User: Fold glycogen phosphorylase from Streptomyces kunmingensis.
Amino acid sequence: MKAIRRFTVRPVLPAPLAPLQELARNLRWSWHAGTRDLFEAVDPVRWAASDGDPMRLLGSVPPSRLAALAADEGFLAQLGEVAGDLRGYLQDDRWYQTQDRRGELPAAVAYFSPEFGITAALPQYSGGLGILAGDHLKAASDLGAPLIGVGLLYRHGYFRQSLSRDGWQQETYPVTDPNELPLSLLCEADGTPAHLSIALPGGRRLLARVWQAQVGRVPLLLLDSDVEENDAHEREVTDRLYGGGSEHRLLQEMLLGIGGVRAVRTYCRLTGHPAPEVFHTNEGHAGLLGVERIAELGAEGLDFDAALEAVRAGTVFTTHTPVPAGIDRFDRELVARHFGDGAELPALDVERILGLGMETYPGGDPNVFNMAVMGLRLAQRANGVSTLHGSVSREMFSGLWPGFDAEEVPITSVTNGVHAPTWVAPEVFRLGARQIGERRTEDALSVGGSDRWDAVGDIPDQDIWELRRDLRGQLVDEVRRRLTASWRQRGAGAAELGWIDGVLDPDVLTIGFARRVPSYKRLTLMLRDPDRLMRLLLDEDRPVQIVVAGKAHPADDGGKRLVQELVRFTDDPRVRHRIVFLPDYGMAMARKLYPGCDIWLNNPLRPLEACGTSGMKAALNGCLNLSVLDGWWDEWFEPDFGWAIPTADGTATDEHRRDDLEAAALYDLLERRVAPRFYERGPEGLPDRWIEMVRQTLTHLGPKVLAGRMVREYVEKLYAPAARADRALTPDAAQELAAWKTRVRTAWPRVAVDHVEASTATAELGATLSLHVRVALGDLAPDDVEVQAVAGRVDAEDSIAEASTVPLKPVAGPDDEGRWSYEGPLSLDRTGPYGYTVRILPTHRLLASAAEAGLLTVPSETVGEGAGVLMR
Assistant:
């Protein structure tokens, strides 16, 4: 007989064990080894059966065991120590507090993301974006940064993956009960659940309640539409991550952005938490948060333009997408139907809302509402997630800043990082603790600092190699266990599975490849020449073995075919002991996979990998990277700690030829450089040169790839400036800036460079030209603009590269024709083909960049000597 309702009956803990509840509900246990050791001591067998989930563990421990623990002085001492450590972690000053003695950093930052990968016990993530968001919150907690995370609570989370007998991906969507998760409802003072509401067309309402997870010091608010007051359609808004059609996705993003702001306001009202001064949207999914904030300010008396300026000042937008196809785009009419009279935000003009996201630039679709475009228009500060991705993003979105060169587009970059305490294997941590002490090792992993990582250089080769073999052996055991479970799901009987006991070898070079399966990540590039791959796997002297994992999106049949192609190869009895595919890739699998591999393989189509953090996690465990120069590897690759797969960029139009060339380069590297280095032995019988590469990886890459480094950069480069701008944009200042922009845009058609001339000078290195420029400013004054000389090397088409700018100063005007004269020196500071031009930009003390207003005037081709090229 089947139950009509399922729930968990929680145990009543004896009073001495009460701190276990607090420890279980704070997700710091997911990255704090001492807390996990404590829960394992409660009941080692049930701890293993619970998959390391304290909430499940406490729900399964019998009262007799709890009573025994309550009388166990040794356990109570351990419990007191761990609980005290958590209290100190939550209350003591950390890095952020030491940097903010004068209160200049933001009092709080609201961080919005559609998914968060905190722990496998809270399955609210699908891939890299969610894992990055989870690591961001954890690192912020370690640093003491006052973040509030905001997301959605998906009842089905992301799908579970299994395989059919013929290797086709199959999906299941297990239901998650919030009451069984480490969550608590956000409640009003009278104990009733706090609710928020989104207006829908036709007089309907979308209600949501708010669940709270505690991620160390950081609260994470998760909005849930599965409430009884909603109709069935509205209850399903938060059913699945990245599921449903366009309207379903739009409702999710309205709930995340608009509802998320309302959830933050409710949380701050109920808890006294400082209100955020900075709002950070992690990808465009939450971009509508800016529209809600405009409406808030409108209710306080600001008009739309002034409210927009105030909102932009305190907003940070991070783009993770290097291709337009990866951006959420909605039909204009669909968006229009959900706003205005009879729907959400009726006080705002629908056309003004639409104007924030429409692709009204050359090459755009004017009938499409683009969430990334809206994110950029609503944020005064924006960034990509690696240096290369920042460059790609500036080019990709340059249409929003017409007339500016791509390198001047105001999108910076903060390279992603990973939360080392989450991803570093306990065995690696213990080796570090033995070398420099437990506290210094914890600081090295969470805060960084090259001085702490330099100590790796003193660890004996033998210790490093024994560690690597131990981790490889653990991976072999894990692979065999998971492979057995997978084959049983595929219908195999026990009599068919004896071969699994011989799968993988703890002494063979092990390569890992695990990630989502969009086509650009090229899951099957390794199969380009199956015979050559087979020879690599079966080489008698220098064999390799490969562990592969990855999920294709449920709607992506092309990705599923790639998975099936790979699975069919791994099923071949000739090689199945050397190459395996493990279904249902997730955080639990990853924590075994990264440490156990010797090589982490990454072969995307360059430059389509925005950052890619899996190789960072592997590197922190002493795994070497073998990757295309894309994302973070393009930025930090050195031959001392890995290999770069050559790319055939010149053949990009012929995808098949490009794949052939790059696969051949991959095989060559494995055959001629990687495998020989691994198997080569020195005088002591150890692979000395390999061990040195491991050491270099830990010493030099370790401090760079940390999420702590990443969050510090966000604080210093983006959050702190955004907070200063937010404070400067008082209502009066916002009105002033909005009125100034309106006046400048109205006057700009009459702004022109009328004449440019330079004093005669010999074009020699070190010489100086005196520039004399006449400009028309129309109704503007010199205080409204900056006139600049732009100079640098030029190519055959006279395009300036590596440009430097020199401000020119007004010396006279206006004359009878209303023109102003500007002058300034131009130093010839480099040899070779050289050129200059002059341009006019609007300027105001409250602008974050020269390009912010999106206005620029340059000389026409007939103006004086404005684009003369000097050859030397």
